[in-house]
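> Could you send the L1 transposable element RRM domain-containing protein prediction when you get a chance?

Sure thing. Input:
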Amino acid sequence: MFRTARELTRPSLSQEALNAHESGSESDIDEDTDRRQEPLTKADLHNMLKEATAEIKAHTAAELERHISGIKEDLEALNTRATQAEADITMLQSTTSQHGQDIYYLSDKLQYLEDSLEDLNNRSRRNNIRIRSLPEAVDADAILPTLRDLFHTILPDATEQECDIERAHRALRPLALNPTSPRDIIVRMQHFATKEKIMAATRASPPKYGASTLTFFQDLALSTLKKRRNLKPLTMALTKKGLKYRWGHPFKLQVRLGDQDHVLHHPAEMEDFATALGLHLLTGMQAADRYNTAHGGNHRAAQPPRNQAKKRPPPQAENTESTAT
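Output:
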């Protein structure tokens, strides 16, 4: 494409000289050769440089155009992918947000259903009494006669019909290895009013069977017992301060301070509830130690509730409350 210095100075034959050579005119060839051996002028060099520059520019422009065209195609492809990625991210964000709302709604519904099921379970046990410390020597056939005599002793003015027992049996668990820890007796009374009278009477004066002092409890769902166990530090603080509390249905703890009622619906609210009443809560181990000292037992420390989030209380229902022992 470019001429060297030797090419610029060496002689060359023109087309006319070649034609003349072919036609046999040697004189014309010699004349043309002599004319071409003349040195290049400044104008010739300028024209040659101009032509070379134009060729370089054209070649460079073509190469740049080719590369720029490829870059443009790549950028357009990247722009398309980025636009699609932004659309996908926006869709995922919207979907994730909707899923979060659905999960919150379903969690709330699940908690509501669990609370409702627990409430129904407890209401189905309203007529039940759980009796602790009745010796295992009282076998299954002797449970009903023994309880009838016991209830007539507790309520001497009650009639046979009022003390009617629907069913009674031992707790459905294996027999304890320790004979001093008999299985509880679960009794279902025919009449709720009679059951409440028995609970009130035994709360004031626990009855005895032989050398054993019997303890009467309301039969409750396992989930409710776990919640009450989690509230052990609070109930002990209330007892220490001389404040009476009441358990309600669905699960709640009511305390009256002055002319104001305070209600707790979930163990997760315990600290705020205690603060509102001006109470100092014991730790789980401290509460267990104090309970064991007072009752001579081996009570395990209450575990904190698994879900610390405050739960929405289920719909209000008729209260069937009893004063705590």
